[in-house]
Amino acid sequence: MAPRMDLNGTAFGAKIAKRFYNVSLAIEQSTLAKATQDLVMLRASQINGCGFCVDYHFKDAVAAGETTVRLNLVSAWRESTVFTDAERAALALAEEGTRLADAHPGVSDETWDQVREHYDDEQITALVYVIAMINAANRLGVIVRTQGGTYEHGMFASLSN
């Protein structure tokens, strides 16, 4: 499928993209481990079918030192041995927070308790925001059919303040 449009191709779109990027940058600078953020963003992007975001977050994770073994197993994290209990809690929260429209009952108390066990309030705040932001980014990409395969690590750095 061909892309429908470049959301950043107008002055208005670029203005919004810069603000969106800066929210993501604030989350990235939180105390939540970057590796956890990358895993969560990759998993939500897989669920939502956003090729551009899968490409983006896979490549950024590799550039940050993540192994391809772990990244390749994100979609099967429950059946994998390469994730910590804390990462599993974050991935469960990402899945439950992403599947809200799939007649999913939302985030279970069990998942929330697991998250509380492994993360402090600042990290949980960052985790909730990263899940919300990646779901928004996925929707933008899917609506306009932004294609995966063209992302280059760091290509949005010029959007930061």
UniProtKB/TrEMBL annotation:
User: One MF term in GO for this entry?
Assistant: peroxiredoxin activity
Any matching Pfam family: CMD
- Where the record annotates domain Carboxymuconolactone decarboxylase-like, the positions are 25-96
Q: Could you tell me which InterPro entries the record lists for this protein?
A: AhpD-like, AhpD_core, CMD-like
Which NCBIfam families does its entry note?
ahpD_dom
Q: What is this protein's record name?
A: Carboxymuconolactone decarboxylase family protein
